[in-house]
Amino acid sequence: MGYLHITGGEVRGRKIVAPPGFTTRPMQGFLRKALFELLKDVIPGSVVMDLFAGSGSIGLEALSRGAVRAIFMEREPRISAILKRNIALCGYEAVAQVITADFLRLRKFPELVEKPHLLFADPHFRLNQVSVLQKLYNSLDMLGGPLVILRYPTENDPLTDVPFFRSTMVRTYGRSVLVFGYLHSSPSE
User: Fold this and answer.
1) Domains and CATH numbers, the chain
2) Which tens digits make up the pLDDT trace of 98-149?
3) Helix, strand counts (H, E) of the chain
């Protein structure tokens, strides 16, 4: 088992557990720092969703930097237990909702305490990012219209011919691409 550190905010420097093995791929500290620098004006007061949560480093980082609530979704019960432990280590049990479910296999989206303003989608690089966007699009009624931040590897281009996703910004960091955008019902929106 490895460890990660929260890079900013009220619990900056707090050590959290990174699940062992290759089923999770936590976002490195430098990339989280860059991501949250870009979002520094929209995080305070927001509700965030950390899809494919793993250790929960993204949602916990958001809470540390002023988000008021975080919703975490993780498919593996063993990793979900580590996620809950990390939430407790940071003292965020009262403002965190953990959903243990496989997002891509959900038939019905679970009830959320609040709809997210920001949705972080950091699926395993082996997953098809277009299928993740399609599933998000199909869940719009439950999610509202959050700003979606999608991470994918530089060798993929999941945005080709995805008419229901409008990107507003793209940033590349090493092997990772971060795309910021909105899902919408028609290409003209």
Assistant:
1) 2-19+27-183 (3.40.50.150)
2) 999 998 888 887 878 789 999 999 887 677 777 888 888 888 878 888 999 9
3) 5, 9
